[in-house]
C-alpha cells in the first residue's frame, strides 16, 4: 500500500538540501561582490594617492616651461633629453614602478586633441612624447575640466579608451608658478591588473561557497538524525502549559512546523504573563491612588494646591507637590502645610525655610517684590503666567519681575493658581 505522507526525515532532506545550495550560492556571491568592491576601492585609493603625490612634487616653474615647450614648435626629443624634463620625469617613473601602475603622467586640456601630454613616466612603445595629443571619453574630459577649474580629484569608472584599452583613471591638479591650476596628473591602471585581483577574489569566494555547502550539509544531517528530540521537547512544553506551569525549557531547533507551534505557544504564555503583570501593576496603582485619596481627604485643601510657606508684604514662598496622586506626595503636602503654619508663628523657623522645604517631592516658587525676582527651587522647572505671558523657569534659577505684575502658577492640567499679588488671592 502506498504511503500517503512523506516521512519527516525525507521531508527535511528535501527541504534542507535546496536551501543549503541556495544559501551557499548567495553567500559566495555576496562575498565576491564585497571583495570586488574592496579591490576597486583599493585601486581607487592607490590611484588618487599616486596622482595627488605626483602633482604635489612637480616643480611649478619647470612644468610651466614644459607646457610652453609642448605648445611651441620645438623639437620634443631634445626637450625630453634636457635636464628640465629628466629631473621631473624620473620621480614619476619611480612612483609608477613602485606602485605597479600602468601609466603615470601629466596633461593639459586642449592641443591637438582633448588633452596634451607633458610628462610621461612610461618608457618604450607606450610612451607619449611631450606635446602629443589624445582624445578621451566625454565623461573623463568633463572630469579633467572640473580638476582644472575647482582643484577637485577625479576618479573615472572602468572605461574603454580607443588607444589604451580598458582603464581606470584618477586625476589631481598641478599648480603653476602663478599659484593657479595649469594642468593635472593622471594615474591609470589597466583592467588586466584588476582582473587578476578579481580572479583571486573569485577563487576565494568559490572556496567559501564550497566550505559553506559542506558545513550546512553536516548541520542538516545532524538535524535530521535528531528530529525526535525537538518533538519530544515540544510535547513536554505543551504539557507544562496545559498543567498551568511556566515552562522552564523549550525547543531550540526542529522542523518549521515545530518551530511555528513553539513560537505560538511562546506568544501565548508571554501574553498571559504580561497580562497578569499588567493586572498586578494596575491593582497596585489603584491601591496607591486610593491611599493617596484617603490621605488627601484628611488634609486641608487639595494635594495639588500650592502650599504657602511664607506670606509677607514683599515676599511669597509657595511649595508645589511634584507627585500629588501618590501617598508620598500627599504626605509631603501635609508636612509642608504644617511647616507653613509654624512659619507664621515662629520667625526663627521662617528664617531657615530653605533647609526644611521638601524639594525631593516638590518645588518652591519664591517671589521677592523688593529684589524684583521670581525664583524656582527644586529638581524640576516651574511654569508661570506673568501678566498673560507664559514663562518657564529652569530649576534653581530666577527671572525678573516688574512691579505690579501678576504671577499665576500653571498646573500640569493647564489650570491656573494666582500667586501674586497677595491681595488677589
Automatic annotation (TrEMBL):
GO terms for molecular function: kinase activity. Keywords: Coiled coil, Kinase, Membrane, Transferase, Transmembrane, Transmembrane helix. Gene3D superfamilies: 6.10.340.10. The keyword Transmembrane applies. Residues 265-292 form a coiled coil. The chain crosses the membrane at residues 12-32, 201-224. This is Histidine kinase. It comes from Novosphingobium album.
